[in-house]
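Fill in residues.
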């Protein structure tokens, strides 16, 4: 479940259907995280460093069990693909930045980018792992490459981010196997995504915050129930604006443009989209969103 509180926070993303074995298609039943071009295992503070990866199944930066502060860093996953998409989705293989094994990571004023297939931007994996990220930019271009990903019971605390994803199956904020806790504070988010902008495998409740969204699929997608209690949501373009099996709009301000349904409560099937913004027309009288064609 994703719950957006009045201050824009998201309390506990906990998707349904937690698995302990690989999904059909070959995901590993054991935690498999590949390699890393740069690994931090000792506590400390790091400023203005540049971390780059071009290898397959390789993180540009991994923080493994350490308590660190990263200020003004640049993380680039310039190339390299994941040999197994399930391991990339569930365990952080090939992510630009992976925090794991109980790491406590504070990231401020960072520039994080990924041009790799299955190259998520920032990945928090495992119980006891916490990522605190603020005042930063995250951009991904490959398929299956989300902005923020939280799995295995990890924690993600995010504030004042600009997230831009353009690949298919690349939600800006997402949870997957084992779920976790995501707190999004600061109240203002700009999301430009080819896939779902916000995605949860169970329920989502929005109680506040300001969200400016341009997406090639669903702006806000929940597999089960979606409740909008308050907040400001501006969807400049989407395939479907709000989608879940059950949708309840109780308050707040919502402005949207959708090429299909503005609100779809026929079911939470995430295959309803048309495959990305390239196939979408801009709003009448308007221009395609930034990053569009």
């Amino acid at each position: 479940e994703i719950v957006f509180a009045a201050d824009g926070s998201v309390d506990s993303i906990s998707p349904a259907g937690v698995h302990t074995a690989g999904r059909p298609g070959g995901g590993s039943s054991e935690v498999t995280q590949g390699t890393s071009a740069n690994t931090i295992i000792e506590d400390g503070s790091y400023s203005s460093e540049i971390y780059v990866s071009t290898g397959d199944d390789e993180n540009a930066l991994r923080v493994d069990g350490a308590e660190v502060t990263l200020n003004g860093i640049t993380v680039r996953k310039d190339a390299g693909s994941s040999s197994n998409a399930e391991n990339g989705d569930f365990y952080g293989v090939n992510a630009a930045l992976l925090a794991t094994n109980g790491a406590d990571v504070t990231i401020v004023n960072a520039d994080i980018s990924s041009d790799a297939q299955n190259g998520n931007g920032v990945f928090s994996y495992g119980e006891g792992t916490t990522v605190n990220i603020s005042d930063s930019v995250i951009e991904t271009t490959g398929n299956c490459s989300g902005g923020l990903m939280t799995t295995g019971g990890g924690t993600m605390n995010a504030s004042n981010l600009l997230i831009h994803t353009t690949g298919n199956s690349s939600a800006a904020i997402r949870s997957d196997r084992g779920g976790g806790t995501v707190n999004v504070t600061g109240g203002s988010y700009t999301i430009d995504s080819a896939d779902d902008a916000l995605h949860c495998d169970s329920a989502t409740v929005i109680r506040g915050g300001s969200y400016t969204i341009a997406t090639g699929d669903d702006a806000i997608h929940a597999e089960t129930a979606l409740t909008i209690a308050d907040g400001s949501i501006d969807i400049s373009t989407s395939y479907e604006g709000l989608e879940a099996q059950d949708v309840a709009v109780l308050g707040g301000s919502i402005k949207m443009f959708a090429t299909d349904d503005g609100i779809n409560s026929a079911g939470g099937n995430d295959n309803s989209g048309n495959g990305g913004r390239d196939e979408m027309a801009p709003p009448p009288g308007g221009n395609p969103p930034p990053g569009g064609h």
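The helical segments are 85-91.
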